[in-house]
Write a structure and sequence with these properties.
By secondary structure, this protein is an alpha+beta fold. Helix content is 32%, strand content 38%. The chain contains four helices and eight strands, in the order H-H-E-E-E-H-E-E-H-E-E-E. Strands 5-4-8-7-6 form a five-stranded antiparallel β-sheet, sandwiched between helices. A three-stranded antiparallel β-sheet has the order 1-2-3. Helix 2 packs antiparallel against helix 3. It is globular.
Length: 162
């Protein structure tokens, strides 16, 4: 009887961890919390990402452009893709990502597609739902990143592959 109870509890614990791991809202909350622990978001100057000059986005003193530790931590903890975009004019450009192109390289320098997520974050709103990311279907969440003055300066993203 004790073995059955222990087995049942272990199964429930594993099931709960898988349910949590595939919860896009919990995963985006974790990404945003990790970024927030580094410091307040801001844009300062420019940086080259995939051969293109784009605004440099910082959290605290850490420049996020071409820095992959936070997004790779999300992959490790949640088995999810993660990206930080910076706003460049009317576009949002991937400056830190674990999303891979079909060639197997990080998709930095690519833009957020003009889709439902783009429409929501452009208005300062979260988007969670199905989305195509560089040709792959995901259950995703996107949050606008705002500076101290409330201006949208970027977007955080996570996705769980369907």
């Amino acid at each position: 009887m004790k073995l059955n109870r222990a087995l049942m509890l272990a199964t429930l614990a594993v099931s709960a961890s898988f349910a949590h791991a595939a919860d896009p809202k919990a995963t985006i909350a974790d990404l945003d919390a990790r970024l927030g622990k580094i410091g307040a978001p801001r844009v300062e100057g420019t940086d080259t990402v995939a051969g293109k000059a784009v605004p440099a986005i910082f959290f605290g003193e850490r420049k996020i452009n071409n820095n992959f530790d936070v997004v790779d931590g999300i992959r490790k903890s949640h088995q999810a893709t993660a990206t930080v975009f910076v706003k460049d004019g009317e576009e949002f450009v991937r400056v830190s990502t674990n999303v891979l192109t079909p060639e197997g390289k990080r998709g930095v320098g690519t833009q957020l597609a003009r889709n439902a997520a783009y429409e929501a974050v452009s208005k300062g709103q979260q988007y969670c739902g199905p989305i195509d990311v560089l040709g792959t279907a995901f259950d995703a969440c996107y949050n606008p990143i705002k500076d101290a003055g409330g201006k949208i300066i970027g977007v955080s993203y996570i996705g769980h592959k369907k």
